[in-house]
Design goal:
With 460 residues, the chain is of the alpha/beta class. The protein is built from 20 helices and 13 strands. The protein has helices at 9-15, 23-38, 60-72, 77-81, 96-133, 137-144, 152-155, 174-184, 197-200, 207-220, 232-245, 294-308, 327-335, 337-340, 351-360, 375-382, 395-399, 411-423, 425-438, 444-455; strands spanning 4-7, 43-48, 55-58, 161-164, 188-193, 226-229, 254-255, 281-285, 315-319, 343-346, 364-366, 387-390, 404-406. Residues 275-434 form the Glycosyl transferase family domain.
Length: 460
């Protein structure tokens, strides 16, 4: 049976620079977990440690331990136990003590990841030395049973599959990796494409990402034996791109979907004191960046307050880290004193905090201008909470018939949709009940099985 080798270099690198996984990283980690559950003997993970042909194994147990720490480690004890500062105390991005805590957390995670990777490197050196010293079949067999620190070049076999599920676009020589895998190791190559936004919507992206993304896909995509996408909308974008670039694919892009993790707090757990009171807020889960369209929700909330009065408008909670291209947004929020407290920002919430945030909200909003899926939409439904979302790109695939949609470019349309929901609490309660009774969350195991079936890994 063939082995499926998963490149997690960019995931480990991201965790070394950020204190919480974002969208793509969540997909990679959950998909990795599901692949291990579906085919534990035929899925292994590797990271690049030097040149384009230098990969070493990473045990799933070590990865899962690191992911658990990043998912649940609070930004700081002080921030998690103290109430949110008044608008006068808020800085342009996050409250001062939270900014300091995020800096501490980032340094802590970099040290943790460095120690983790250093241990793997030391493990690799010691094992290679032993292999050189004891070049016997029996000893080579014992190396194959080791979890971490072994060379892919020594373990991979013809017919194995090497897959990229993340975003290693900074490796400009990745096409050399693929050619080595295919020509020298006789392996096949697959990749998961989350979206084509840097190609078709570059106005919402950082210039560096645009350059690295387009160059990477222009050289690597023609070499792919298997192309997977998170959604049918992304598959169509890939097909559009290859037509424009006159690239011939070995097979049609295969949508695998995206799973949803149920976010319900434990019944006996106490709600963190710094979170807003249940039923007092509307939730928007997302990294703060231009494409996610936070500015439109600010305009809508300001109009709600002006027309209804602050006492009759729930708080709008932004939950997520600050990303790129939102400097003007953050300055505006500071200038309006976060709409006198009717807008709040909870930076980098833990999984536990997210569970409580979803559980206590009236409903969620997701006005993003373009998505490869729309994970917060399916997470909202999985938590039994209604979602008002953008009608564009792949978002309706995530929300289905249980989500209500609006035009994300039309503030008046969003305002009408939100107002209608707020004006009929009985209908909102019935909508919530219908979600809890009928919604069937997409399963990560199904996503993983699509990959295993397409690559024939784990099959006799």
């Amino acid at each position: 049976m063939s082995m499926l080798w998963i490149d997690v270099t960019d995931l480990l690198g991201y965790l070394g620079q950020h204190n919480r996984p974002s969208g793509i990283q969540r997909v990679v980690s959950e998909l990795g977990r599901a692949l291990v559950e579906c085919a534990p003997k035929h899925v292994r993970f590797v990271r690049r440690f030097a040149g384009p042909c230098d990969f070493e194994t990473v045990s799933w147990q070590d990865m899962e331990s690191l992911l658990e720490k990043t998912a649940e480690k609070a930004v700081s004890q002080e921030a998690s136990q103290s109430p949110l500062p008044s608008p006068d105390e808020l800085g342009p991005f996050t409250p001062p003590q939270e900014r300091f805590a995020l800096m501490q957390e980032a340094v802590s995670m970099q040290v943790l990841t460095f120690r983790h990777l250093t241990r793997l490197a030391d493990n690799l050196v010691s094992r290679v030395r032993r292999a050189v010293r004891h070049n016997s079949r029996q000893h080579q067999a014992s190396l194959l049973n080791a979890d971490s620190g072994l060379l892919l070049s020594e373990l991979a076999r013809p017919g194995d599959v090497f897959m990229v599920p993340g975003s290693p676009w900074d490796f400009t020589d990745y096409s050399q990796t693929v050619r080595w895998l295919r020509d020298s190791r006789r392996m096949t190559f697959g990749l998961l494409i989350h979206d084509m936004i840097p190609v078709f919507n570059p106005e919402w992206c950082d210039r560096g990402v645009i350059a690295s993304f387009t160059a990477w896909h222009r050289t690597v995509l023609p070499l792919a034996d298997h192309v997977f996408t998170t959604s049918a909308a992304t598959a169509r974008d890939v097909q559009k791109y290859v037509r424009q670039q006159r690239i011939s694919l070995s097979s049609e892009p295969t949508p695998i979907g995206v799973g949803a993790v149920l976010r319900r707090p434990a019944p006996e757990a106490d709600r963190p004191a710094h979170l807003p009171a249940p039923d007092s807020y509307v939730l928007f889960v997302s990294t703060l960046e231009a494409r996610k369209n936070h500015i439109q929700m600010v305009r809508v909330w300001r109009r709600l307050v002006e027309e209804r009065g602050a006492d009759r408008v729930p708080t709008l909670v932004f939950a997520g880290r600050v990303g790129w291209l939102v400097h003007d947004l953050m300055q505006q929020l500071e200038g309006m004193k976060w709409l006198d407290g009717k807008i709040r920002h909870i930076a980098s919430p833990t999984d536990r905090e997210l569970a409580f945030l979803y559980d206590g909200c009236l409903f969620t909003v997701f006005p993003s201008l373009a998505e490869g899926w729309g994970l917060p939409v399916s997470e909202s439904l999985s938590s039994g909470k209604p979602c008002l979302a953008s009608s564009t790109t792949a978002i309706p695939e995530a929300g289905g018939a249980l989500t209500r949609y609006f035009d994300p470019d039309n503030a008046s349309d969003i305002f009408r949709t939100v107002s209608k929901t707020l004006d009929d609490p009985l209908a909102l309660a019935e909508w919530s009940a219908s979600i809890r009774e009928t919604y069937s969350p997409p399963q990560w195991r199904d996503c993983a099985q699509h990959i295993l079936d397409q690559t024939s890994c784990g099959h006799s």
